[in-house]
Amino acid sequence: LALNCGCTTLTLFTPSIPLGGGLNLSMAQPRDILPELSAAQLLTANFGSQKFSHEVIMKNADNVLSVVGVGPLGNISYSLTYDGHEIHGTDLPTAIKSEHLKYAVGDIIIVFSNSAQLSKALPAGAKLIESPQQREVWINGKKALEINYEAANHWLGTVKYKNFLRNYELIIKNLKVDML
Q1: pTM of the predicted model, to two decimals?
Q2: With left for phi above 0 and alpha for psi between -120 and 50, is residue 68 left, alpha or beta?
Q3: Which of 7, 12, 21, 63 has a CA positioned 20 to 30 A from the CA of residue 89?
């Protein structure tokens, strides 16, 4: 398939993911990041003046996190799997750049992992401030990340995530979530 569609394939061996500003987010095993689940989401990404929307199908099972971005015509625009050691991914030229596939795993950790796991993943000096419907990460006295949840159960409703370090915003509408 990769040869026929012009896809690029990427394998990353990484214990951490760049968070922005020279800081890294430590990686964890998928079973420690999320419960076992299957989710369909509508993702809108705002990068400055650029805006992208597409459906995302995510599954976390058997210690493997899989994410597929579905294009407007039902085509797969990118995919990634993370097994706790490597991130494997493919993307089409019209989709997000290959290097951004690894940031997707970091965003999932930041937005959906439990508080204890997120605190362990954050760089030294980072402070997590959390309420049932909001998370903020402060680094060196500045707000670096902000997540607002529509519901106390983060898998219900819409999530708004701002990364001030890398200057982008994600709006994630949870369409369907099944715990496995």
Answers
A1: 0.87
A2: beta
A3: 21
